[in-house]
Specification:
Elements (H helix, E strand, L loop, with lengths): L1 E5 L5 H18 L3 E5 L11 H9 L4 E3 L11 H5 L19 E5 L5 E8 L10 H12 L6 E6 L3 H11 L5 E5 L9 E2 L5 E3 L6 E2 L8 H10 L12 E10 L6 E9 L1 H7 L1
Parallel strand pairs: 1-2, 2-3, 5-6, 6-7, 7-9
Antiparallel strand pairs: 1-11, 4-5, 8-9, 10-11, 11-12
Bound molecules: fe (ii) ion (FE2) (2 copies).
Length: about 270
């Protein structure tokens, strides 16, 4: 079975691109289940009800997220769509939303998705390593097919979690940096690994944000409001093939394309 994971959507133009390319991507890669990280879909912060409905209607099976999902004005979507929209599981107890869910596919197979967040250069939340192990033990009683979106800043922390979960998870895919890495591989005990899946959004930018504002922020070291960049939208994703009998990954492939290239190459 094959899972398509699309990296952090930045802005509504990214949602448009997913809607345009998803039917073709699913067909071309014989995709059974699609997961999208939507933490930056609404102008860089969180995701709206309308965007969730749009992703749902174009065939996205699950939306993961990260640190930017907690915009207080948009928290109701985490409550309303808990179990479809996930937030990192290892935030302190009492926060709204869910961090993992299982999905029954048309083929009868079951896929579990687990969203976690790193702590290095981020927030001092609960330990993702311990929580992952405990949660995967629970999820494995339902299915061996387990996809992990690890939303983290530090490559070392991502690699460490990849090794920690090798043999337990089918895939450990990093998000958050918005830059796709080229280190995709299958670890020895069958976990597909990629340090960062990248970004679906405007690439003439600083991780999705307008360049002048980003430069000003670095030069001034005082608060400057970011605004998201426009145009030159690319889709970053990864396709993972998994043996449904044992949950081990057999193939991993990166995707980095835009509308023009995608339709020209087909
Ligand atoms: Fe992001
Ligand atoms: Fe993030």
């Amino acid at each position: 079975m094959r899972i398509l994971f699309i990296a952090d959507l930045v802005g509504n133009e990214a949602v448009d691109l997913v809607a345009d390319l998803l039917p073709g991507l699913k067909h071309q890669h014989r995709i059974d289940f699609t997961i999208v990280n939507g933490e930056n879909a609404d102008k860089g912060k969180g995701i709206t009800e309308k965007q969730i409905q749009r992703l749902k209607s174009c065939g996205v099976g699950c939306v993961t997220s990260g640190n930017h999902i907690w915009d207080p004005r948009k928290r109701e979507v985490l409550v309303k769509h808990a179990g479809y929209l996930l937030r990192p599981l290892n935030y302190p107890e009492g926060n709204v939303g869910l961090g993992s869910a299982t999905f029954r596919l048309e083929s009868g197979e079951k896929v579990a998705v687990l969203n976690l967040q790193g702590r290095s250069f981020m927030y001092s939340i609960d330990c993702p390593f311990r929580i992952a192990q405990k949660e995967i033990r629970r999820l494995r009683s339902e299915t061996p097919i387990i996809f992990v979106d690890f939303h983290a800043e530090a490559t070392a922390e991502k690699q460490a979690l990849g090794w920690h979960l090798d043999g337990q998870a089918s895939a450990v895919i990093g998000t958050h940096t918005h830059v796709q890495t080229a280190d995709e591989r299958i670890l020895p005990r069958g976990a597909a690994y990629l340090s960062d899946a990248g970004m679906t959004g405007p690439v003439d930018s600083v991780i999705g944000m307008e360049t002048n504002k980003a430069i000003e922020r670095f030069m001034m070291q005082s608060h400057v409001y970011y605004s998201i960049a426009k145009g030159n939208i690319r889709l970053n994703a990864v396709v993972i093939e998994i043996d449904p009998q044992n949950g081990k990954a057999t193939h991993i492939e990166r995707i980095n394309t835009n509308k023009e290239e995608f339709f020209r190459e087909r």
